[in-house]
Every structure is written in structure tokens, then in C-alpha cells.
Amino acid sequence: MFHNPFSVGIDIGHHSVKAVALAQKKESVELAAFAEVVLPPLVINEQHNVNAEHLLSAMRQIKKQLPRTARHVALGLPDSAVISKIIQLDTNLNNDELEFAVAQAIGSSSPFPLEELRLDFFPLDGAEMAPALATLPYQVFASRKETIDNRVAVLSKAGMKATVMELQTHALLWLANHCREAERLEGIYGVIDIGQHHTEFCVDPPDSMAFHREIAFGSSSFENGAPGRYADDNMMVFPATDTSDAERFTQQLADQLRRQIQLYHSTHPRFPLAGLWLCGGCQSQILEEVLARMLNLDIRWLNPFQRFAVGRKLVLEPQRQYCQFGVATGLALRGALR
């Protein structure tokens, strides 16, 4: 399964950097290490540009908390930093012609000049039928060179190497699928990742590419909720809220999610949601039974470490779910299976 002793997933957010290292142990996957380092304000701006000096300092702190030989990294990119497009291309094109056609298609729709972008593309399901088809759908991704290159350069200076670049949404869906199979759940489950300022909603329906929406609502949006703080170990924690505060936050979250769920059902009527996985660092602010009742869905917390064996040197707090490590864990899984 693993091509290297360790697979590391690194999630670079606006407020912190989170890393998870997984190791192959015989027939199981073991949680080898995890770490979170808080970033100073404005290390990453709204255009996804990074302050390399501050990010490098955080990466070096992360590296010290990982196994010495854990250098190969699957790095996450925010969905809003990536242009995603499906295009139809002739099946008789050679590689050079494919690259030219993809560049032309992205160049005509991108707000950025083509020379400022990095591109990746691959044929979608049905490639085996290509000889019998005139055209074939290709998934194309594009992101600004500055967005990718600066992050890769910082990793390199910290002694690590980015071997996989993946969308954060895809990382969450990798983890959710792993957990769904482990629990043998039936039906379609979406993932909700609740941050301080934004909430990610994503689903992986069988009939199409991943459905994703970013909602401008997070733990700091609740007008009566107390803000989160960081403990001495750099882990995000939220102060306990009384039931009425948590219920109001849950109701506001349900109102935001209901619109996106209706949109998903309108575009994927054959694959209705059976439930939602919740992750992010705001467990104390959400009442899952209230959310389940308001949305009429099965609601479960996506504890990313629950389905792995734990290394001997690690100690997990029994009452803690570590849900803020969802993206990093999904990235580590993705890197292991590359």
C-alpha cells in the first residue's frame, strides 16, 4: 500500500498548519504522529498567497514533531484556489496536442494569464472506450503558479517534499469514504468541515464529480458564541457553551446547510443524502441530535483517528475527537495510495 515508510498529509489553513503522519504496519495503517502549529495573522491572504518566512517557521516546527524519515507530503489546496473544468477532447490527439487543447480551453475561461497557471488533466471514466468514441471528457485543474510554487518551496526548505497536490475537498471525501467502509454504512454521506470563517460542504455522488460548496459561515459567525482560543499545545479548543448557545449555533448552521442540501438534491435526485459527517474544531458548539432533527439526516462526527491503530509513542485524550485534523488525515491517506 505505502511506497514509503510514512505518508504525511499537511493542511495549510489561514489560522494554523496541521499535519498527520500515517505508517503501514503489516496489514493495518497506524497513526504515527500529528501536529498543529498556529500561524500569525495574515500569513495567507484571500488570494491564497503566503508569507514564506512565517510559513517556513511553522513548517520547521511541524517537521520536528514528525518521524525523522517522514518527508513525503501530500499537500492540500483550497478549492477556491483551483479552477476545475470538464472539457471534451478528440480521442485521436497525441500528448502535445492534448496539452495545447487543454491550455486553450483554460486560457479562454481563466481570470489569470495562461503563463501564470499550472495545469493538470486526466481522462474521466470511459477512457477504455476511447477507440470507439469521437471525443472523451477530461477533468482539468488549474492553479496559479505562485499559489503552488511558494508552498512547495517552503516545504523543501523545511526538509520535506510535496509528492501529491490534492484539493481539500477530495481529501475530506477520501477520509469519509474510508470511515463509511469501516462502519459499513449504506447510502450517500456528505462531509461538513466547519472552520472559523467558512464551512465546506462536499458530497461524492456516484454519477458525477464531487459536489462542493463553500459557505460563508463558521464558528466565529455566531454572534453570541465565544471565540475559540489556542491552548499551550497549539491545539484549537473552544470554551464550553451552555445548551441554549449551542442550540442557536446549531440552528444557524442548519439554516445554512439546508439551502446547499436542497441544491445538491436538485442536481442529483437519484442519490439523496442519507447523512452527514461533521468535522472541524467546534464540537462544543454543535448539538448533533438537534442538527439531525432539523435536517432529517443521520449526523456523525468524523473523528479521523478513530479507525487507525495508534503508535506506541502517541497518547490520545479519550474524550477528544481531533476533528480539526480531517483534511490532513485524508491527505495522508491520499498520499499513501498514490
Automatic annotation (TrEMBL):
CDD domains per the UniProt record, alphabetical: ASKHA_NBD_PilM
A Pfam family assignment: PilM_2
InterPro entries in the record: ATPase_NBD, FtsA/MreB, PilM
Database matches in PANTHER family: CELL DIVISION PROTEIN FTSA-RELATED (PTHR32432), ETHANOLAMINE UTILIZATION PROTEIN EUTJ (PTHR32432:SF3)
Protein name in the entry: Pilus assembly protein PilM
Native species: Photobacterium swingsii
